[in-house]
Automatic annotation (TrEMBL):
UniProt keyword terms in alphabetical order: Transferase
Keyword Transferase in annotation: yes
GO biological process, one term: guanosine tetraphosphate metabolic process
Role according to the record: In eubacteria ppGpp (guanosine 3'-diphosphate 5'-diphosphate) is a mediator of the stringent response that coordinates a variety of cellular activities in response to changes in nutritional abundance.
Lineage: Bacteria, Pseudomonadati, Pseudomonadota, Betaproteobacteria, Nitrosomonadales
Protein name listed in UniProt: (P)ppGpp synthetase I SpoT/RelA
Species of origin: Sulfuricella denitrificans (strain DSM 22764 / NBRC 105220 / skB26)
Domain TGS, chain residue ranges per copy: 402-463
UniProt family annotation: Belongs to the relA/spoT family.
Pfam families xrefs: ACT_4, HD_4, RelA_AH_RIS, RelA_SpoT, TGS
Residue ranges annotated for the ACT domain, each copy included: 647-722
């Protein structure tokens, strides 16, 4: 907070009686007298609690919570919110507890204060993690009660207005945080004017010189364009009067940061940004919006591709308007927004319009419903995110939507961030649809799942009962919901598969100690779990499978090596059989690409689990001394057939059509080409071809190589081991 704990004089309540009297007088216009009395009591408690605390500017600290409450009063928020705003820093900065607030002002107020308070009392490893944890707490509290974030945004708005008193480094950090998190949340909740102000204030503190230069340029342009603006305003008023349309018309200047973003994004100079000035036309209802649009298109010609209908398809935050850009006098582009009075209320107050206008407006109810859905998705993402920083990463994605609107087969409109793919759409429909999707139909045409969606696409997801998320999806999905669900599924799948492998490894170690796994009693497991507090049996087994624990060590712990267990007959540890169906718990080294039939060895890699190498792999040669991590493994001859990657190198005569012959021979031998690359020296009579093929075993590979040797142009063919191929490095 923008404050100092310096003890000045015994100030505290002096000069504040006038402030609170003026504030409560404003509240009487929409709150009951008993509510106003409670708010006054909250003010006095906060004032006495913060006595002796001062802001960096030198003002008594109470000026800050009062200013926050005044911002919220402008949005006509309820008494509980205003009390929480006045008390929002007392738990964090004074001796007053959440319990005391609950006793004096009710549980709801205490919960709001708790939701806004930071987690300063908890130790964190890094400042980034602390910040992420604070946001997680705030966003989850907001999911339960949106008033938490409204208080937080008002708090941030006042802090940004008074940021000049802070040290330059802290100003930069707070401004950056505001631009990354708070401004987008304000936008997501439909608080448009707050969003604009937060962006401009952040811009001012992050780039003070650029801000000043741009502000001067806009001021100068305002004077230069006054004549054009006056002429356009007059012409619009006259045209609407002739068409008997009643309207309120106002000039609207774009805020500085949006002009700066446009200059940056399109590499424009200021003189090339024409639409810094626009007009807003407010009419009585929806039909009149469209009548107004038609009239203005008769007055000035519309610029093709510059019309957006946010009435038919509202933005995700409930915003509705018609946007059009026209060729004005002297060829100047003019941006015009047309909206009804109800739409204007929502555009200015956003989600706060629920308190500001207690009417049965369907627009407001629909906007609340969309906000509620978004808040619920936060809870969903939270439950599946590994830690606070991962959660924050997912949320940041959803806060910069730049939306694309697509249709479901039943005609329902869905808003997704620009760049969203078929997989993002599938998870937006339902988690189960996402987990089981195999293809996407866009406008009735089958397309790859990674296809980016465009405005107006009709999207249908094709699912299969046994399908499951693919790790490669993470490289192209962009919504937080899709990313968190995929990661959660993959982690769970790896955990289950690792636990199964861990059980096999433990049984092997127990057999080596002369014990059968069936002889291990519940009491022995209980003793082991007590020594590893917080772990259950499945977690211990998963740790073994992931290489975080050694199977032989856990076996000894279970047997609690005593004289009797020392006397047991130790037998050599038998090999683990590899079936190729172990999933993510067993990995095949890319350095040597082992396939069934190769002599193999296992290497326990902490965190990755069991990695299979060939016996002659150079990587294993370097790790021979690390015997604790090496494991005897063998292929299961009865295992179901599966495709394994293998690298081969061909030297071929540089003849036309040779690649086609090689590809045909590989296909005829029942193999699939996963990757191919060519190395050709200028003027050489020979070309080197590198293939990654999919084969079932060594016999299948031998058949493929035999087929290739029959091609006259093939000079030499070798299997490549110990070299990482270019694509899979």
């Amino acid at each position: 907070m923008n404050k100092s704990n310096t003890q000045h004089s015994a100030l505290g309540t002096q000069g504040s009686a006038t402030d609170i009297a003026a504030f409560t007088a404003r509240l009487s216009s929409y709150l009951k007298p008993e509510d106003t009395a409670q708010i006054e009591a909250a003010y006095h408690l906060s004032d006495s609690a913060h006595a002796g605390q001062f802001r960096k500017s030198g003002e008594p600290y109470i000026s800050h919570p009062l200013a926050v409450a005044e911002i919220l009063a402008d949005w006509h928020l309820d008494a509980q919110t205003l009390m929480a705003a006045l008390l929002h820093d007392v738990v964090e900065d004074t001796a007053i507890t959440k319990k005391e607030i609950a006793e004096r002002f009710g549980k709801a107020v205490a919960e709001l204060v708790d939701g806004v308070s930071k987690l300063d009392k908890i130790e964190f490893q890094t400042e980034i993690h602390a910040q992420a944890e604070n946001f997680r707490k705030m966003l989850l509290a907001m999911a339960r009660d949106v008033r938490v974030i409204l208080i937080k945004i008002a708090d941030r708005l006042h802090n940004m207005r008074t940021l000049g008193a802070m040290a330059p480094e802290k100003r930069q950090r707070i401004a950056n945080e505001t631009l990354e998190i708070y401004a987008p949340i304000a936008n997501r909740l439909g608080l448009n004017s707050v969003y604009d102000e937060l962006e401009d204030l952040s811009f001012h503190h992050l780039y003070p010189n650029r801000f000043e230069v741009l502000a001067k340029a806009v001021k100068a342009a305002r004077g230069n364009r006054r004549e054009v603006v006056g002429k356009v305003l007059e012409a619009i008023e006259q045209k609407l009067k002739d068409c008997q349309i009643e309207a309120t018309i106002t000039g609207r200047e774009k805020h500085l940061y949006s002009i700066y973003k446009k200059m940056q994004g399109k590499s424009l100079t200021f003189s090339e940004v024409f639409d810094i000035y626009g007009f807003r036309v407010i009419v009585k209802d929806v039909p009149t919006c469209y009548l107004t649009l038609g009239s203005l298109h008769q007055l000035y010609k519309p610029i093709p591709g510059k019309f957006k209908d946010y009435i038919a398809i509202p933005k995700a935050n409930g915003y509705q308007s018609l946007h059009t850009t026209l060729f004005g006098p002297f060829g100047t582009p003019i941006e015009i927004q047309i909206r009804s009075q109800d739409m204007h209320k929502i555009a200015e107050a956003g989600v706060a319009s629920h308190w500001l206008y207690k009417s049965g407006d369907t627009e407001i109810n629909e906007m609340q419903q969309k906000t509620h859905q978004w808040l619920q998705s936060l809870l969903e993402i939270q439950s599946e995110s590994g830690d606070a920083t991962e959660f924050l990463e997912h949320i940041k994605v959803d806060l910069f939507p730049d939306e694309v609107y697509v249709f479901t087969p039943k005609g329902k409109i869905m808003a997704l961030p620009r760049g969203a793919t078929g997989v993002d759409f599938a998870y937006a429909v339902h988690t189960d649809v996402g987990n089981r999707c195999v293809a996407v139909k866009i406008d009735q045409e089958l397309m790859p799942l990674r296809t980016e969606l465009k405005n107006g696409d009709q999207v249908e997801i094709v699912t299969a009962a046994h399908a499951k998320p693919n790790p490669t999806w993470l490289s192209y999905v962009i919504t937080g919901k899709a990313r968190s669900h995929i990661r959660h599924f993959l982690k769970t799948m790896q955990y289950d598969e690792s636990a199964t492998l861990g059980e096999r490894l433990l049984n092997q170690a127990l057999r080596a100690l002369g014990t059968d796994s069936k002889e291990i009693t519940e009491a022995q497991w209980e003793k082991l779990l007590n020594e590893n507090t917080g772990k259950n049996r499945l977690e211990i087994l998963a740790d073994i499978g992931l290489g975080k624990r050694l199977n032989i060590v856990v076996a000894h712990q279970l047997l609690a090596v005593t004289e009797t267990t020392e006397e047991r007959k130790h037998v050599p540890m038998g090999p683990i059989t590899i079936r190729g169906t172990e999933g993510m718990a067993v990995q095949y080294a890319r350095c040597c690409r082992p396939i069934p039939g190769d002599p193999i060895i296992g290497f326990i890699n902490k965190g990755q689990g069991l990695v299979i190498h060939t016996h002659d792999c150079p990587v294993i040669a370097k790790n021979r001394a690390d015997t604790d991590k090496l494991l005897d493994v063998e292929w299961d001859p009865e295992a179901p057939k599966k495709a394994f990657d293998v690298n081969i190198k061909l030297i071929v005569a540089n003849q036309r059509g040779v690649l086609a012959q090689v590809a045909a021979a590989i296909a005829d031998a029942g193999s699939n080409i996963d990757n191919v690359s060519m190395e050709e020296e200028d003027g050489s009579a020979y070309t080197t071809m590198n293939f990654t093929l999919q084969v079932e075993n060594r016999i299948h590979l031998a058949n493929v190589m035999r087929s290739l040797r029959k091609i006259m142009e093939v000079v030499r063919i070798t299997r490549v081991k110990g070299v990482v191929d270019r694509r899979h490095g």
